[in-house]
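Notebook entry, structure prediction.
Reason for the run: the old model in the group folder had no record of what sequence produced it. Starting over properly, with the input documented here first.
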Amino acid sequence: MPYQRHELPEGLQVLQSPCRHLLSKGMYITGQRDPSQDGRAGDGNCWCGKTQHAVGPDQQMVARARCVPGRTCYEPLV
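New structure, fully documented this time:
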């Protein structure tokens, strides 16, 4: 099955702090920790630093809009 990128609807913003283990290619291009602030740098793919996969330790998919407070594996940046 080919990969399909899922975008947030236009105008929708993620306001919660991302998990400290959320990683993206854009971080390495822009040097910014928050994948929501990297504009279009990188391809938008994210992965978990704990599992090194697109699935987190809680067996849920990893994404900027998904790795927020409420998940059992979430740890704030601060």
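Summary: The helical segments are 25-30.
The old model has been moved to the deprecated folder.
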